[in-house]
Design goal:
By secondary structure, this protein is mainly alpha-helical. Helices cover 70% and strands 3% of the residues.
Amino acid sequence: MNQTPAPDETEPEAIERPTDCFQPAEVRFYALSPLGFGGTTALILFLVYGFYLVVATLTQRPPVFEPGAAGEMVMTQVAWIALVLSLIFTAGTAFTESGRHMWARERELLIAALKPSGVVEVEALNAGIPARWRRQYLTMFVVGAIAGLVFNGFMIVSGGFSFIEYANSVGLWFLVVSPLLYGIGFRAGVDVARESGALKALIRGHLAVDLFHLERLAVFGRIGLKAARSWMIMAAILLLFLINPNNPQQIFDASQLWMTIPVVGVSVLGGLFLLTSAVHPVHKKICAAKQTELARIHAEMDRVRDHALAGDPAAAAALAGLTDYEVWITNRPEWPVSSGVTTRFSLYILLPLLPILGSYIFEKIADQLVTGTPV
């Protein structure tokens, strides 16, 4: 029987053409760098945290290392916090570039899963961010930058510093980096909303569901998985705040839970939201296509049933074939997620647990080395 795709639920939604897009500053930085993705990412981390090391070395307020309880040199808590913030900053900029790579890598398979009308929209997704979002991106970045300055103001007031004293310490690093870090963080919320909306519009308006080739739709599962992985990695980095590097006997710092856990929860929810945004609309389309095809099968079965029951061999054979086809259609998968994607997502959920597990193991090893007790 001929396969009939499910009818569109809505009219195709207009998405900007490739010429109506722009790229964030970090994407342009990656494009100009000759070091490739990994090298440029390492360079960003080196520059950001290297700036902290320079400021801390010059001001010694506080230094990077200080004597520990046993006389050994350990990293100060402020230096550790600056390292974690540098990792967050680096990850935030790298995720934007890796997202661009993901759209380019999946371009051909994404086009194969869509009607011809979706090609322009796919090219627009590869080109960058639609120009109509420029104001929202800039606004949220400015709001985040202001929040970063407010954070510095809170540190000055709570610490009893003057602005000059704060700027003549490692506070100078926080004054420069915090507005950029908060700006990227606030802008990420807009990016989640934009990508989720664009993907849903692409699926609603241009997805071609062929029940004989559902493997083509697995591309949406991979796209959702990639987005979820980025947010799970961010959650893992945020949990590094719970580690106290200057106390090997109690490296897990529970005092930071009140600040860290809500942010980690938002990161995990962001990953789940993006994964759902990619696969749930496809799931609905597949279900609609299956129901449409089953309706056609039942209508054909109803047409030949009486002849088959009356002993017509041709009608009986047709009815048997339709019955087998009905079972096959019913058993077709309804989610664009392969077993490999499911396994990887299960592993990605464990990413945020790695810092806690690592700190626990390190603490036990350190305790054994110091006291001689078994782990």
